[in-house]
């Protein structure tokens, strides 16, 4: 594996499972020092131990991304412990279908927006100054294909992910002259533990979803991680403010 991220310090939120964990392992494998922010302390420490055993560098900070003080502490730890911050993969999030907006509880809306949009606001607010002070770098926000088109079965989640795309574009413009790039991933169907659990319990529904995929398959988490590593590296230094689909051509038909 390349060493294109050598000497870079990178934060990954939601880095204890799925796309986040795959990104942590990929980034560490390419030479980055990775600071994991997530709620699962046992799993976070286990991932750090495995990376360290393989010769990589990583640390874990218990983080609830819906709390600004936790996000601020995560960024402060990266800078104080490793001397700089050069990048971030703001990956933490999640959502469930909730039916029509006419039946949606306000508390559900607030919880989904807090986890998927406000958390990214907190992350960018604290990461950007630290990255500027470190000489510039790159941030990747994990949005979703439902950040590019509506979904009547996931209204709150779709609205939040549309917000992530808008936040990405606006902050990319705001920070461009300071040497900070900001991009969003429009991820499609990915073979995460969540998807595997859904497939096991709802095989017919899973097959129906898969039938709508132009490629006929889900993405491997490693494919998302590889693209994230590219966007966090200097090889992508002229890419900023973009919402980049990594979805097997799904949004090509939107």
From TrEMBL:
The keyword Manganese does not apply. Its EC number is 1.1.1.-. InterPro entries: NAD(P)-bd_dom_sf, Sc_DH/Rdtase_CS, SDR_fam. Pfam families: adh_short_C2. The keyword Transport does not apply. GO terms for molecular function: oxidoreductase activity. CDD domains: SDR_c. Keywords: Oxidoreductase. This is SDR family NAD(P)-dependent oxidoreductase. Belongs to the short-chain dehydrogenases/reductases (SDR) family.
């Amino acid at each position: 594996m390349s060493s294109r991220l050598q000497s870079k310090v990178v934060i990954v939120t939601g880095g204890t499972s799925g796309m986040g964990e795959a990104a942590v392992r990929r980034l560490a494998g390419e030479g980055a020092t990775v600071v994991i922010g997530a709620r699962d302390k046992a799993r976070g420490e286990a991932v750090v131990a495995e990376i360290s055993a393989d010769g990589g560098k990583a640390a874990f900070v218990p983080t609830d991304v819906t709390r600004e003080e936790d996000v601020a502490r995560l960024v402060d730890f990266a800078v104080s412990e490793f001397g700089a911050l050069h990048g971030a993969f703001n990956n933490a999030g999640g959502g469930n279908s909730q039916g029509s907006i006419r039946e949606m509880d306000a508390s559900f809306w607030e919880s989904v927006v807090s986890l998927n949009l406000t958390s990214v606001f907190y992350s960018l607010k604290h990461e950007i100054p630290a990255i500027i002070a470190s000489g510039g770098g790159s941030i990747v926000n994990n949005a979703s294909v439902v950040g590019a088109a509506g979904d009547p079965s996931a209204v709150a989640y779709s609205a939040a992910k549309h917000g992530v795309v808008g936040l990405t574009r606006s902050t990319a413009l705001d920070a461009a002259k300071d040497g900070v790039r900001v991009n969003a991933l429009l991820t499609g169907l990915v073979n995460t533990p969540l998807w595997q659990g859904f497939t096991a319990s709802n095989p017919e529904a899973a097959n129906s979803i898969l039938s709508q995929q132009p490629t006929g398959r889900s993405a491997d988490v490693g494919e998302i991680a590889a693209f994230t590593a590219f966007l966090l590296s200097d090889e992508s230094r002229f890419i900023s403010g973009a919402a980049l689909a990594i979805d097997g051509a799904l949004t090509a038909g939107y």
